[in-house]
What does this fold into?
Amino acid sequence: MALDTAKKIEIIKEFQRTEGDTGSSEVQIALLSKRISDLTEHLKIFKKDHSSRLGLLKLVGQRRRLMRYLKRTNRASYNKLIAELGIRDNI
It folds into this structure.
């Protein structure tokens, strides 16, 4: 369930720190959040797709690790990001 290029560029432009920034924690978390929401919708339809469910759990774990890092290093950016993405602060 990869993102198409147009959506990916749009998300990167919205969450990048500086021009050309594609690897910051904020961008990575935003991209993972989009993939997680797409996979969640897929799994609502295809309930027995266990391989996609495993991939979803891996994505959630990766996003959780990135969010923990961002919270530890830059609290203001973390609070802004969870407000924009609508993610719960349970880390």
Summary: The mean pLDDT is 94. The chain has one domain: 5-85. Residues 5-85 form a domain with the Helix Hairpins fold (CATH 1.10.287.10). Residues 50-73 form the longest helix (24 residues).
